[in-house]
Sequence to fold (240 residues):
Amino acid sequence: MGINARVDMSTRGFVTEMPDSLRYAASTRVEFEVTGMMCARIPRSSRVLDIGCGTGSISSLVIAECNAKLVGIEPDPDRAEACRSRGIATVCGYYNDQTADELGAFDVIMFADVLEHVPDPVSLLERAAQHLTRTGCVIVSVPNVAHWTIRWSLLRGRFDYQPTGIMDATHLRWFTSRTADQVIAAAGLSVVEHDWTSGSWMSAYRRIPKRFRRVLLRALVRLAPHAFGCQHVVTARRAT
Fold:
């Protein structure tokens, strides 16, 4: 059983079935979602480290779209093997001091929906900050717990975990705009851009026709990002 499979086992009692350990596998670049925003923020031909790369779905997009020289790191053996099967250089393990020193410096270090799954995000970000090139950056995406769907559930006295999404039962940390910036700053990084995804994939929007959905949601995110933003996407550099 893989490491993350054991983590998924910890969801017992919170969801009716154990989540599929390979459940996150975005395969296309979508504007105003994590895949599109990550690719848009990575300079071409950068050396990129994708921490918690999972099955390599976003890694493969970054390589194709940005001509990146990418290395993935993933603790779960099944996910790491899925990533390798895409032809991606993948380290199966954790991003600790030894691994960080062995891999060296990167132009971009990605945390695509990873920090919400770890008990100490600041230490992980600090290590990443120490292994950036002089002009390098960290790009983070994390779910927005202040999303209107969560607020509405709380008003009704509900905080129901789900197999995927903002309420993924494996999440250990919860982020608002303020806490996302606060955690990044605590790691000695300075936020240079903070945006929000639209979440057009969410079940709450399935009744809105697709031809209107993305335009409508982007307008709502611009109007009230803290309530309608699905995920925070933050770019940060070492503080001077």
User: Anything to note?
Assistant: Residues 168 and 209 are 26 Å apart (CA to CA). The mean pLDDT is 92. Residues 210-223 form the longest helix (14 residues). The longest strand covers residues 132-143.
